[in-house]
Design a protein that fits this description.
83% of the residues lie in helices and 0% in strands. The chain is mainly alpha-helical and 136 residues long. The protein folds into two domains: 1-66; 67-136, no CATH class.
Length: 136
């Protein structure tokens, strides 16, 4: 099956943004080692967030421009990913509060929320597409 124009546009927007993210992430980590001052460290630390904003923009545009069935699959995947991710972080927080697990830094937890949500979205989307294909 040929890729539709909306998905080609998504890939043209997504991949350069992710390459920019990876470059800025590695650059900011190395620059932080030599920087002093709160403002400079803040700006350099937030550099990788800029291309992620373009990733989010690409995701919103592709969802907006897909057909109704594709939007339904994405909506279900987002709901499942949000539910599983939220439940996972909630139970993780309960275990941390009970001191069953070793306390991590707040930053080490916060930095994983978005990647986990996107990863769960991808897995859920694949599962939902498989479900619909098997029930045709």
């Amino acid at each position: 099956m040929a890729m539709r124009a909306v998905h080609k546009r998504y890939l043209r927007e997504f991949f350069p943004a992710m390459v920019g993210y990876m470059i800025l992430l590695f650059a900011s980590v190395s620059w932080l080692k030599s920087l002093d001052g709160t403002l400079a460290r803040t700006l350099v630390t937030l550099l990788p967030a800029l291309p992620i904003a373009f990733v989010i923009r690409a995701m919103v545009r592709v969802i907006r421009d897909q057909d109704e069935f594709e939007r339904r699959i994405d909506l279900e995947a987002i709901a499942i990913a949000g539910g599983i991710g939220g439940f996972g972080f909630f139970t993780y927080g309960l275990l941390l509060n009970a001191r069953v697990l070793e306390q991590p830094t707040g930053a080490s937890v916060a930095v994983w929320v978005f990647p986990i949500l996107l990863g769960l979205f991808g897995v859920a989307k694949c599962a939902i597409r498989f479900y619909y294909r098997s029930h045709e």
